[in-house]
């Protein structure tokens, strides 16, 4: 039997978190409970191969029981504003009866109609819904009075979004101050469970290593969120990139920069970029046996120096194959390496020498993408 679940329609970011929260629970060991997922206009419809909503609630409960410690660690390490609520999330996700009733309300689109600003429920925190921030509904040019009210949702929506944040969001911290970039991956079109399997495998196996290197190079403070986001995808496993490029879907990256204090974060930036052609061409490079992660030392070097223009040149070239942007990348990179090679600090000099060793490999990227 196939059951359909529609995400509530709270916002693209929140619905995407909830989709991934449901998907990780439904993949399970046999990987057969999740069928096709379609994304339309910021919401998703999941087709689930189970007999009833109680079975779906059982899957969520089992997943959370099995991964409780990892979920707690993920939610408390990067985003301590959620720390106080973690027990409520776990309790809600493992209450099978309550979850079954909730899932039944997702059998038709529009669960969010009874939730929102000024409605009943719990105030949703910014890491789970950045557009709920106060600044978005304060317009000082208007004379009419509009009382800001919080965006409220039910505990089930809140907890599924938190599960998605723990399992699927890529969170990169800044050094020296409390700042974090959270990246989620929405899509429009049809996506099979294969993508979700590959993505969660990547998230579990190798994303932490990439995040550590970006932290070590202070990428959050040195380069804009838009550039940082593409850098993350460039460093993503080839299996994930291949599965994304094989789907009948348009891919996006939705990135949010939160700063301030951990227990009272503020949204300082939000970008939504389409990454379909970027992903497709990265995957094409792997098909042609060009391992782009071999130039990672060069990319981390450019990121640590804040060489935005060089990185943008490379990323735009990979997206649209415009050779002028590759020229921009090589010119800027060459001058950056030469500048830092002359630095009196031996560490800076060594870093530039290491980056220079990768530089020659970039030629292959251009040749393979243009042929
Ligand atoms: Zn709800």
> Which molecules are bound in this entry?
zinc ion
Radius of gyration: 22 Å
Q: What's the N-to-C terminus distance?
A: 47 Å
Low-confidence sequence ranges = none
Number of strands: 11
Total separate domains: 2
Describe what you observe in this structure.
The chain has 2 domains: 3-287, no CATH class; 289-371, no CATH class. The longest helix has 19 residues, at 323-341. The strands form 2 sheets. Strands 1, 2, 3, 7, 8, 9, 10 and 11 form an 8-stranded antiparallel β-sheet that branches. Strands 4-6-5 form a 3-stranded antiparallel β-sheet. With 371 residues, the protein is an alpha+beta fold. It is globular and about 65 Å long. α1 (12-27) crosses α7 (193-205). The protein has helices spanning 12-27, 53-66, 68-77, 86-93, 96-105, 155-168, 193-205, 207-216, 219-222, 225-234, 238-246, 276-287, 296-304, 308-320, 323-341, 346-359, 362-370; strands at 3-6, 34-40, 43-48, 116-117, 122-123, 151-153, 170-173, 179-184, 187-191, 248-261, 264-274. Helices cover 52% and strands 17% of the residues. The chain has 17 helices and 11 strands. Zinc ion binds at residues 8, 111, 115, 153-154, 156-157. Residues 8, 111, 115, 153-154, 156-157 line the site of zinc ion.
Q: Keywords, please?
A:
single chain; about 375 residues; alpha+beta; 2 domains; three-stranded antiparallel beta sheet; 17 helices; binds zinc ion
Quick recap of the structure?
This protein is an alpha+beta fold.
Give the topology.
Layout: E1 3-6, H1 12-27, E2 34-40, E3 43-48, H2 53-66, H3 68-77, H4 86-93, H5 96-105, E4 116-117, E5 122-123, E6 151-153, H6 155-168, E7 170-173, E8 179-184, E9 187-191, H7 193-205, H8 207-216, H9 219-222, H10 225-234, H11 238-246, E10 248-261, E11 264-274, H12 276-287, H13 296-304, H14 308-320, H15 323-341, H16 346-359, H17 362-370
Antiparallel strand pairs: 1-3, 2-3, 2-9, 4-6, 5-6, 7-8, 8-10, 9-10, 10-11
The structure holds zinc ion.
Zinc ion binds at residues 8, 111, 115, 153-154, 156-157.
């Amino acid at each position: 039997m196939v059951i359909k679940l529609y995400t509530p329609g709270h916002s693209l970011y929140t619905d995407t978190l909830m989709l991934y929260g449901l998907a990780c629970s439904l993949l399970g060991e046999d990987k057969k409970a999740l069928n096709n997922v379609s994304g339309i206009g910021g919401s998703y419809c999941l087709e689930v191969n189970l007999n009833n909503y109680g079975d779906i609630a059982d899957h969520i409960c089992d997943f959370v029981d099995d991964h409780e410690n990892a979920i707690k660690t993920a939610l408390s390490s990067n985003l301590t504003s959620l720390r106080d609520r973690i027990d409520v999330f776990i309790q809600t996700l493992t209450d099978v009866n309550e979850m079954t009733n909730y899932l039944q309300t997702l059998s038709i689109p529009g669960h969010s109609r009874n939730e929102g600003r000024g409605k009943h429920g719990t105030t949703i925190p910014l890491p789970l819904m950045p557009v709920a921030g106060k600044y978005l509904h304060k317009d000082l040019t208007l004379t009419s009075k509009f009382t800001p009210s919080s965006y409220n949702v039910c505990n089930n929506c809140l907890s599924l979004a938190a599960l998605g944040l723990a399992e699927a969001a890529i969170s990169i911290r800044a050094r020296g101050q409390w700042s974090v970039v959270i990246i989620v991956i929405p899509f429009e079109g049809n996506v099979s469970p294969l993508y979700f399997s590959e993505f969660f495998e990547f998230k579990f196996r190798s994303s932490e290593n990439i995040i550590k290197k970006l932290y070590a190079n202070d990428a959050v403070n040195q380069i804009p969120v838009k550039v940082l986001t593409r850098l993350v995808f460039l460093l993503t496993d080839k299996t994930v990139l291949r599965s994304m490029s094989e789907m009948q879907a348009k891919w996006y990256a939705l990135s949010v920069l939160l700063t301030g204090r951990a227990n009272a974060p503020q949204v300082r930036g939000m970008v939504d970029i389409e990454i379909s052609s970027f992903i497709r061409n990265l995957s094409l490079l792997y098909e042609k046996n060009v391992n782009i992660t071999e130039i990672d030392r060069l990319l981390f070097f450019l990121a640590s120096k804040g060489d935005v223009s060089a990185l943008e040149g490379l990323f735009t070239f990979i997206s649209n194959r415009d050779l002028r942007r590759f020229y921009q990348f090589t010119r800027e990179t060459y001058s950056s390496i030469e500048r830092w090679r002359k630095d009196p600090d031996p560490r800076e000099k060594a870093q530039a020498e290491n980056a220079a060793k990768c530089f020659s490999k970039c030629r292959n990227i251009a040749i393979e993408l243009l042929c």
